[in-house]
Write a structure and sequence with these properties.
- The complex is a heterodimer of chains A (431) and B (460).
- Chain A is built from 22 helices and nine strands.
- Chain A has 431 residues and is an alpha/beta fold.
- Chain A has three domains: 101 residues, Orthogonal Bundle (Fumarate Reductase Iron-sulfur Protein, Chain B, domain 2), CATH 1.10.1060; 127 residues, no CATH class; 176 residues, no CATH class.
- Chain B is of the alpha+beta class.
- In chain B, the strands form four sheets. A seven-stranded antiparallel sheet of chain B has the order 15-12-14-13-17-18-16, sandwiched between helices.
- Classes of the chains: A alpha/beta (431), B alpha+beta (460).
- Chain A: It holds the Pfam family Fer4_8.
């Protein structure tokens, strides 16, 4: 404390010269101690204060007090470079709600022309129920005709129902009491994270009305957003829901006559936003040998739309994780969020890894069934063809849908070229 | 005052253009460190990767009379790295290698940007202990630790950073590279420039390599906790412990305000009816540790402890230490502006000082929680106020001025381990006196004739 207080953001804030972009009580929380720095994946890459949570909060304060204007290049870059993984929150001694600050930041920063066009497209697609339904039209995701008034309801997700329809089928097979009305909409997490916090919350509330009572979701990112809108007690992520009632016989997953070795990739928002991380581990350990990856809790670089908006940075975050997965000698790596699942499938496929990616529900359903079908021989066969799912195939065994090339995955097109196989060796990956 | 484009270009040619930032948004995050209320952006942020680059930057800066402020992770609590006069902020985080760990010589050599935890972990992997243990160890850099002579939770038994600095490589503001000390535990050739650099807060030279002493890793460690109805009782227990020849590795206290805040925050099951909490701990051979902990527990009970518990296992020990480590964050949650101070008094006057702080807080109508290192007499009175309440900030200012004066009156000091920086410079003369202040300035001028290094701080 000193008489020589310089006129910085604190002083301006103290004088009330603020723009009202951020709720003051959120921005005031940060004491700039820097404890978040070692937890931040983008700071680890850049070693630049500007791409650390503390530095970004200083930037937000500069925006709030008018020290920097909306068009400042660093503000724009950092609002987008941040993964939004919220790894800074559990390590924050002062309890800064960084994820919410980021949502406010992007909602301001990404207005109008400043919004990344791809983010606009993505969020526009899922804003209407009929379009969300259409996403799932050709996929065989779970659906039930009726909904019990108080649930528990299975949330189908928007992109999840199209990309990984087997996940909701597996969830329903494991927990038949879950109803899954097909006309449910998007939860709004995508909007909240991509510069439209208000619409994100509105969609969350709307989904809450469509699915009254308890909502069970297989997507960690959706769970955290819904919980922030509807209240923590109304939202259960699947592992949390399943672990709370261990009555079900789980079975065992075996590979080559031994118990399968299975690793987990945490969902950032599930872990950092909802403190759910023990449950998926316990469930995996019940059916297989659980292997903890050294960086299981760190972001895989999917980060919602991030892998599409900033593919290079996304791969740089992913590369060390792929190394860890391959070094761990596991049969499967489990995801608890569709974005992570998609990211890992793409990354491991580019490396022609033998490790397969499953959603937790798929793993558990397979254990109940007594195993997964043998992996198809894929080498040389991977054109853009869509995998056919036999009509009588049990839900839990549809995991090879993971192998379906995704149209926006550049690694899929490059597969077969030896020099393109190792995702860690590209020029993007060198710091 | 923006830098001349020619200077920026030269900086770029020294460290590489991508390692020079000068845009308004690029420099804005570097306007502050972990000190509240101090904020002033540099004109450029420069990230050197080698000693030669540091030297070239400093020569350029001296030639053009541009202020240079060296910075590690910016976790200091005295605004030592806030560039009050703009200029170049020299960030050393790219120089982050651990160069060597020697079991034979019990030392580690590292670049300044390596974090304290990185160095300590690298040493631990070889069965060695880097003893200084500042609270920000996962963030702080060893260069910053040396530049601020960082303290920590193990100060009583193990000392502070200065006790572990064997040698330094330093770039002087005029560009010369000197190596002070070295790998030797005994070396009295000339002035002890290594010690002079330690705690110089980036005002005399830029540290580009450190050689630090290590110790064999203690076999085991354990912690206990005692609750007292008042801090005076806890203070007597501290005196009794040290008077009985026990020099514990840990002897930390929390006052009533802190206990309540920590319990609300971390739910560790602390007794919130107690007036003071004393954490005591030791490390070493298992039987010695057990003996010392039992003895300390008994001495606490003799001095009227309400309750004494000794941790049964490592996890429990860790939880107890966590209570102390989270004191500051827990307090900071009480309001939006947290002003943490660092006065230190002779050990026997600890309880007296805490009483004075409570008295000052009451008279100025402030919430001040006090925690700290009982074994070192090092207190951290922490005021929490509303950042928008300018009148409360004024009261805080006045209260701490009184607290500093009280500490000096007890043969204490204005800062035990955080440093002077910009935050406590106004009180430095009170502590050092005119003659030492004048000498400090002459020393500064001898190192830095152009006055470019961290101007507006110690020695300016």
């Amino acid at each position: 404390m000193s008489a020589e207080v310089s006129p910085g953001t604190d002083a301006l804030a103290a004088a009330g010269q603020t723009r009202g972009i951020f709720p003051a009580e959120l921005l005031d929380r940060c004491i700039s101690c820097g404890f978040c720095l070692p937890a931040c994946p983008t700071y680890a890459q850049s070693l630049d204060e500007a791409s650390s949570p503390r530095g970004r909060i200083t930037l937000m304060r500069a925006l709030e007090t008018g020290v920097l204007d909306d068009d400042d290049a660093t503000l724009r870059e950092q609002a987008s470079y941040c993964l939004g993984c919220r790894a800074c929150e559990p390590v924050c001694p002062a309890g800064v709600q960084y994820g919410e600050l980021l949502e406010h930041w992007r909602s301001h920063q990404w207005q109008g022309r400043r919004r990344p066009p791809l983010a606009r497209v993505l969020t526009n697609v899922v804003v209407r129920n009929w379009l969300v339904r259409r996403l799932g039209l050709f996929s065989r995701h779970a659906r039930t005709a009726t909904a019990a008034p108080q649930g528990p309801h299975l949330m189908l997700g928007c992109f999840e129902r199209a990309l990984f329809p087997a996940v909701s089928r597996a969830a329903r097979r494991l927990r038949p009491e879950l109803d899954a009305p097909g006309d449910q909409g998007c939860c709004g997490a995508l909007h909240a994270h991509n510069g439209d916090l208000e619409l994100g919350r509105e969609l969350g509330r709307r989904l809450g009305e469509q699915l009254p009572g308890t909502i069970v979701t297989t997507a960690g990112g959706c769970a955290a957003h819904l919980a922030s809108v509807l209240g923590r007690d109304r939202v259960k992520e699947f592992s949390e829901y399943a672990a709370a009632d261990p009555a079900t016989a789980l079975g065992e997953l075996r590979v080559d006559g031994r118990r399968a070795r299975v690793a987990l990739q945490d969902s950032c928002h599930l872990r950092n936003g909802m403190d759910v991380w023990r449950e998926p581990r316990e469930l995996i350990a019940a059916v297989a040998d659980y292997v903890e990856l050294p960086g299981a809790a760190q972001c895989c670089g999917s980060a919602g739309s991030y892998s599409l908006l900033r593919p290079r940075d996304s791969r740089r975050v992913l590369a060390p994780k792929l190394d860890q997965i391959e070094a761990a000698g596991v049969d499967y790596v489990v995801a608890v969020n569709p974005g992570c699942q998609r990211q890992l499938v793409g990354g491991l496929r580019r490396r022609r890894s033998r490790v397969r990616v499953l959603h937790l529900t798929e793993l558990l359903a397979a254990a109940q069934d007594g195993g997964l079908p043998r992996r198809r021989l894929r080498l040389g066969l991977r054109s853009g063809r869509r995998a056919e799912v036999p009509a009588d195939e049990p839900a839990g065994t549809a995991a090879h849908l993971n192998d379906r090339p995704l149209p926006d995955d550049p690694g899929a097109a490059a597969a077969g070229r030896p020099d393109a196989l190792d995702g860690s060796a590209g020029p993007d990956d060198i710091r | 005052m923006a830098l001349d484009p020619g200077v920026l270009a030269e900086l770029g040619s020294i460290v590489g253009r991508e390692h020079v930032r000068s845009g308004a948004g690029e420099v804005a995050p570097y306007a502050r460190d972990a000190t509240p209320l101090f904020s002033s952006p540099p004109d450029a942020v420069v990230f050197p990767a080698r000693t030669a680059e540091v030297a070239a930057v400093l020569r350029l800066a001296t030639a053009h009379r541009i202020p240079v402020v060296p910075r590690g992770a910016g976790s200091n609590l005295c605004a030592a790295t806030v560039p009050l006069q703009g200029g170049i902020l020299l960030v050393l985080t790219r120089m982050d290698r651990v160069l060597e760990i020697s079991n034979e010589e019990l030392l580690v050599r590292a670049e300044p940007g390596a974090t304290t935890a990185t160095v300590a972990d690298a040493a631990a992997a070889k069965g060695l202990l880097f003893a200084p243990d500042p609270g920000s160890r996962t963030v702080s850099t060893v260069g910053g630790n040396v530049a601020t002579c960082a303290g920590g939770l193990r100060g009583l038994k193990y000392g502070v950073t200065r006790n572990y600095v064997l040698g330094l490589e330093v770039v002087l503001p005029t560009g010369e590279v000197i190596r002070t000390g070295g790998r030797l535990w005994k070396d009295v050739a000339g002035y002890d420039l290594t010690r002079l650099m330690t705690g110089s807060e980036g005002t005399l030279g830029v540290i580009t390599e450190v050689t630090l002493a290590l110790l064999p890793m203690p076999a085991t460690a354990s912690t206990g906790v005692a609750y007292f109805s008042s801090l005076a009782d806890a203070g007597r227990a501290v005196t009794a412990i040290l008077g009985h020849g026990v020099v514990p590795a840990t002897l930390e206290f929390l006052d009533r305000t802190c206990i309540g805040a920590v319990e609300d925050y971390a739910k560790l099951g602390l007794r919130s009816d107690a007036g003071a909490l004393l954490l005591f701990g030791d490390d070493g051979e298992a039987d010695a540790v057990e003996r010392n902990l039992t003895r300390m527990g008994e001495l606490c009970a003799d001095e009227g402890a309400l309750e004494v518990t000794v941790a049964k296992e490592v996890a429990q020990s860790e939880a107890l230490l966590a209570a102390r480590r989270c004191a500051l964050p827990a307090l900071s949650r009480l309001d939006t502006l947290t002003v943490l101070e660092d006065v230190t008094v002779p050990r026997p006057r600890l309880a007296e000082m805490v009483d004075r702080i409570d008295d000052v807080a009451a008279r100025h109508d402030l919430v001040i929680g006090t925690f700290g290192h009982a074994g070192d007499g090092n207190l951290h009175p922490t005021a929490v106020v509303d950042v928008r309440d300018t009148e409360a900030a004024e009261r805080t200012h006045a209260a701490f001025a009184e607290i500093f004066t009280a500490a000096i009156g007890m043969d204490g000091t204005i800062t035990g381990e955080h440093g002077v920086g910009a935050a406590k410079l106004p009180y430095l003369r009170q502590r050092l006196g005119d003659d030492q202040m004048a000498l400090t300035r002459r020393i500064k001028t001898a190192f830095d004739p152009a006055g470019i290094l961290n101007p507006g701080k110690v020695g300016s």
